[in-house]
Amino acid sequence: MRAAKDAGLDIVALTDHDTTDGWGEAREACADLGLTFVPGIEFSASNNGSIVHLLGYLVDPDNAAFAAECARTRDDRQWRFEKMVDNLHQDFGGMTREFAYSFHEEGATLGRPTIARALIDLGIVATVSEAFDDLLSSSNDRYYAGHYAPTIEDAIGLVRAAGGVPVLAHPWTSTRTTLVNEHDTDEQVEARFVALAEAGLAGLEVHHEENTPYGRERLAEIAAHLGLIVTGSSDYHGLDTKPVRPGAHTTSLVNFERIVELGTGSTVS
User: Fold this and answer.
1) I need a labelling partner for 232 at 20 to 30 A (CA). Which of 54, 62, 124, 254 fits?
2) In the chain, what's the furthest Cα-to-Cα distance?
3) Which residues of the chain have pLDDT under 50?
């Protein structure tokens, strides 16, 4: 939140994967810094065999179905974390579970960034991006392991039922967690977004570092056609992870106000 303040932001959302545990600390930090805090979450979801990410703004963390799904996903993430560490240990002896867990902060979501930091410390890779592009890539069958994820339609329904605003995160990338692939026709792409809008999708994260330039253009057109909210974010993960900084991409005030109007599960502060 201090980094966001230094970047000149005045409204900031926190969307950790599968947990809302950071909301209290973030809200206090925003109050101290004079920032408006937007509570949120990020779900991994399955879509025709691939993984996509769904943001949920202003959800009710105490909604029973929502809380249960978060717990189920977190539990499976622990299995996946240990499976990937064990896979790496076969070739890199120093990568043990104990060592990998030493890079995990209590309360944080277990995931590949933690493993990547351990790999860096061992001198196996130089950066988190390098780890994600190679050893931890979903295409690396030797080391990668998947985890449980609800279908994208179910995830949208969960967010809506918890009073939240579901926004599809970075839907048009060239490398990962993308809803669109290079072989899709315009008709297939349009039909896919129409179906998700009918399932309750409220918005598209158009302005994101990993969306392709053409993807951003098409996403903006689709959002306008379907009346969806347009958002942007840095997807900032901290100093030692992605190089993108807070404020690199933002959401317009008009679209922020649409999120506030639609969300009923929690409030901005």
Assistant:
1) 62
2) 53
3) none
Hunting for tokens 């990338």 — which residue is that? 173
Domain boundaries, the chain: 2-73+149-262, 78-133
Residues 6+ apart with CB under 8 A from 143: 84, 87, 88, 135, 136
CA distances from 83 to 25, 67, 143, 223 (A): 31, 25, 8, 39
Lookup: tokens for 50? 């691939």
2-73+149-262 under CATH 3.40.50.300, yes or no: no
Which residues have a Cβ under 8 Å from the Cβ of 168 and sit 6 or more positions away? Answer: 52, 53, 54, 55, 152, 179, 196, 201, 203, 204, 205
Residue among 102, 77, 97 at smallest CA distance from 86: 97
Please give the structure tokens belonging to residue 2.
């201090």
* Residue burial 158-195, b: 16+ Cβ < 10 Å; e: rest: bbbbbbbbbbbbbbbbeebbbbbeeeeeeeebbebbee
Q: What value, to the nearest 5°, has the Cα angle with vertex 217 and ends 45 and 57? A: 40
Cα 135 from chain centroid?
A: 20
Predicted local distance difference test score (pLDDT) of residue 138: 85
Cα separation, 220 vs 227, in Å, equals 10
